[in-house]
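[Q] Does anyone have a clean structure-token version of this?
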Amino acid sequence: MSRSDLIADVFTIIRNAIMIKREIVDVPASNTIKAILGILKDEGYIENFKLIEDKKQGLVRVYLKYIATKSAIRNIKRISRPGLRLYVKHKKVPSVLRGKGIAIISTPKGIMTDKSARQEGLGGEVIGYIW
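[A] Here you go.
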């Protein structure tokens, strides 16, 4: 099966795992996915993640975070997609739920949160929203 949007697939896998209250989920590995998961870990949305080697692409095992039986991730949404890319300038970087959530932005200096992009004065492609 060829995948046209790996990020959307990973967001869907995480969303479905949260709905059935799974503690651990395996997602396909890529450098972009590892960068996004690093941001989620730093922001406190997941416990941890680790790379699992296999003979193919590799997998990333994600340990989801729950607080009093409720997931730390309330919603995870893909914004820019292959059919419709969404780019923003540094002055128009979106704020999710007035700062309670995060927007993940792909900038020339790498993948970062909306707050980091605003501090650096960078725009880029809006990958997704998490709250």
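[Q] Thanks! Anything notable?
[A] The chain has a mean pLDDT of 95.
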